[in-house]
User: What shape does this take?
Amino acid sequence: MAVAQRSGRERVPPHPDIETIGLQQVLEALVDPVRRGIVGELYASGRDMKCGTFDLPVSKSTATHHFHVLREAGLIRQYYVGTSRMNTLRRDEIEAAFPGLLRALLSPPAQG
Amino acid sequence: MAVAQRSGRERVPPHPDIETIGLQQVLEALVDPVRRGIVGELYASGRDMKCGTFDLPVSKSTATHHFHVLREAGLIRQYYVGTSRMNTLRRDEIEAAFPGLLRALLSPPAQG
Assistant: This one.
């Protein structure tokens, strides 16, 4: 039904085009260790993950804020499956816009 | 003379071992666009540069603070030539500790 479809679309939050995102905004998102941890879990898992499945040392409302910042910085896409909000790392788009950035920031540190 | 030598050494500011620096500290240094600009000029020039030769949109005292943060984060070495404070990018050390980081953060953005 039309109403149900519109309602479904409205639950999907807006996502910026990656072309509108600058390195400054991406770095401001990723300088936060909790946000870098979220992106790191998505990067390492290679699959979409529900918000509730991340191991985060913050409250649920703070986590929601962090997901919002990551979405606004073009790093993740969010969508619903039933009542669960899923998160996708925009890996290929980020790699095209900022080559090597995810690997440099998210790979395990080199051993001394 | 011993006194002159000690005096000379005291003018050289302390530099941390790169092994003691974490990615978090490096990112906090480089998230600032003025500091990223300083490191970017050193990276692009491939040579040591005097503090006064950088094209920075901040006061001299603010610039001195930014150089201090970069030195403390293990990104630059500083030394004196006469009364000029010179800056060296610790390029090889950073590359060994954080592979690909400088290239990812300092290369010109990819064209869309």
User: Anything to note?
Assistant: The longest strand of chain B covers residues 76-81. Chain B has one domain: 24-103.
